[in-house]
Amino acid sequence: MRQKRSHIAIWPAGLLCLGGLVLAASPASTAAALRSPFRDLLRPGQRILVDVQQRVRDWQSAPQFQAEEYAELEKVRQDLASAELRERKLLAENATLQQERDTLQAELRIPIAKRGSLPLVVPNLLSANVLSKKTADHLRQAVAIDVGKRDAVDPLAYVLDGEQPLLDQGATTGIEAGQDVYSARNVIGRVDTVGRWTSSIRLITDPEYQALARLARKSDRGMLWGAAGRLEGDGAAHCRLRSIEATQLVSVGDLVFSVQGDGALPHPMFYGRVIEAELRPGAVEWDIRIEPAGKLDALRSVHVLRQSLNPLRMMAQ
Question: Which of 45, 115, 174, 225 is such that its CA lies 20 to 30 A from the CA of 102?
Answer without folding.
Answer: 115
